[in-house]
Amino acid sequence: MREFSFTDSDFERIRTLIHRHAGIALSPAKREMVYGRLARRLRRLKLASFADYLALLERDAHEWEDFVNALTTNYTTFFREAHHFEILKRHLRQRKGHQRIWCAAAATGEEPYSIAISACEAFDTLSPPVEILASDLSTHALAIAEAGVYEADRLHPLTASQRAKFFEPSQGRYAVRPELRRLIRFERINLMDAHWPVKAPLAALFCRNVMIYFDKPTQRRLLERFRPLLLPDGLYFAGHAESILADDLFRPLGQTVYAPLPLGGPPSS
Ligand SMILES: C[S@@+](CC[C@H](N)C(=O)[O-])C[C@H]1O[C@@H](n2cnc3c(N)ncnc32)[C@H](O)[C@@H]1O
Question: Which of 37, 152, 190, 219 has the fewest Cβ atoms within 10 Å of its own Cβ atom?
Fold first, then answer.
């Protein structure tokens, strides 16, 4: 016996709602995951069934935030797919002037802070000429990102000198130094929204390990919107399992890094 009644139609309704709101396409195999994550909300709200929860969701706009937070997967690490950060450093060093970077699925912050550390290292200063926008749909993940305080074991991918230079001990944990924090603006952005408050053009756009949650038409629409945001020599960084099937929009440079093709498609010759 389950603690809460959870019917096929409850699951279908939840799949429809999260797809419509966040673009997330949950496969039937995610049924137990959905139960486990939302059961916590039912317990907290003292509800007896998923039907009651869905009814509450319909009348209480505030619950949407917790619903979405519960159903997003925020797994990330510092310097995940480390080769991307070496490519970013070379890319930034070659460029002149102020540069904008958007990290479009920043989760709990490890990715934008890795970008900021790379920028500092590229220019050998704590005030490199970059501004980073870090966004995510999950307000829970973003709150952790903004706080920038991590358990020691999260910092394992960093070298000892990176840890010393960019973090300071804080009540048994490690806090991002203000100089690094200052390079990043955090913002809640739903990639499904019609308008994104993103200043372009971008020297680099990181959208890693989130496309896998979207269906192909959604991925395509996002890629169409990403391309004009990038400088002609800007870089798009995708996740390791996200080869981009849009060869009219982006040119692969290897290691899931892409260059935008000129608007109007690839040159004909
Ligand atoms: C698995 S994490 C990836 C984090 C990081 N980019 C990385 O590669 O380590 C996926 C993130 O995408 C976010 N996400 C899911 N749907 C989204 C949407 N529609 N708009 C913006 N972010 C979304 C989730 O909240 C989650 O934090």
Answer: 152
φ, ψ (nearest 5 deg) of residue 113: -70, -35
The CATH number for 22's domain is: 1.10.155.10
Ligand 1 atom nearest the C-alpha of 239 is 8
Q: Pocket residues for ligand 1 (CB within 6 Å)?
A: 22-24, 72-76, 80, 105, 107, 111, 136-138, 141, 190-192, 208-210, 213, 239
Are 26 and 110 found together in one domain?
A: no
Ligand 1 centroid to residue 107 C-alpha, Å? 6
Judge if 110 and 57 occupy the same domain: no
Q: Which atom of ligand 1 is nearest to the CA of 192?
A: 19
Where does 110-183 show beta strands of DSSP type E?
130-136, 149-150, 167-170, 173-176
Q: What is the pTM of this model?
A: 0.96
Number of domains in the chain: 2
Q: In the structure, what pLDDT confidence band is assigned to residue 268 with cuts at 50, 70 and 90?
A: low
